[in-house]
């Protein structure tokens, strides 16, 4: 189903699809949100695992991005009453509905990724070399 960016009628009221898409883009905008969502689409992660999986992200930024995703209902955070405390992050059902979009992006990248100029991979803190 193709949606136009023009105003559409839903339940008798006009919807500005441009404005609605801006709201949708805002949910996933942020330097790291898409990368976090991509990882969480694969499996449940603990905080430290996420930090290690994303080269260049700082602890502060990962915390901030996860809090925003949780506030927007895209990520759930589970705290286990253990010593030491264990915290796990996973995508919510609402975020899992973005799966086809992520698959489409992966297919697009496989088709066209080689034609995109490479940029420096590191952002934020410098990744440790092993």
Q: Strands, helices and their partners?
A:
Elements: E1 7-10, E2 13-16, H1 17-28, H2 33-42, E3 45-46, H3 47-53, H4 59-71, E4 75-80, E5 86-91, H5 93-96, H6 99-112
Antiparallel strand pairs: 1-2, 3-5, 4-5
CATH class of one domain: Mainly Alpha
| Class computed from helices, strands and strand pairing | alpha+beta
Query: Looking at the chains present, what oligomeric state does this protein adopt?
Result: single chain
Q: Which fold name corresponds to the CATH topology of one domain? A: Arc Repressor Mutant, subunit A
Individual helix count: 6
Supply Rg: 18 Å
Q: Kindly, what is the distance between the CA atoms of the first and last residues, rounded to a whole number of angstroms?
A: 47 Å
Largest beta-sheet characterization: 3 strands, antiparallel
> What order do the strands of the largest sheet run in, or round the barrel if closed?
3-5-4
Helix content: 40-55%
Average pLDDT reading: 86
> Could you spell the SSE succession in H and E letters?
EEHHEHHEEHH
Number of strands: 5
Stretches where pLDDT is under 50 for at least 5 consecutive residues are: none
Overall shape: globular
Overall CATH architecture of one domain: Orthogonal Bundle
Q: State the CATH superfamily name of one domain.
A: Winged helix-like DNA-binding domain superfamily/Winged helix DNA-binding domain
- Beta-strand percentage range: 15-25%
Protein name: Putative HTH-type transcriptional regulator YtcD
InterPro entries: HTH_HxlR, WH-like_DNA-bd_sf, WH_DNA-bd_sf
GO molecular function: DNA binding
Organism: Variovorax paradoxus
């Amino acid at each position: 189903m193709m949606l136009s960016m023009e105003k559409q009628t839903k339940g008798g009221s006009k919807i500005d699809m441009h404005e609605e898409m801006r709201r949708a883009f805002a949910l996933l905008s942020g330097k790291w949100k898409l990368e976090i969502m991509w990882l969480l689409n694969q499996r449940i992660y603990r905080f430290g695992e996420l930090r290690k999986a994303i080269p260049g992200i700082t602890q502060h930024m990962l915390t901030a991005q996860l809090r925003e995703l949780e506030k927007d209902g895209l990520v759930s955070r589970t705290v286990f009453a253990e010593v030491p405390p264990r915290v796990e992050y996973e995508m919510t059902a609402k975020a899992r509905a973005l799966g086809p979009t992520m698959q489409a992006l992966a297919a697009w990248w496989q088709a066209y990724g080689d034609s995109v100029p490479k940029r420096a991979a590191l952002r934020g803190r410098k990744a440790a070399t092993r």
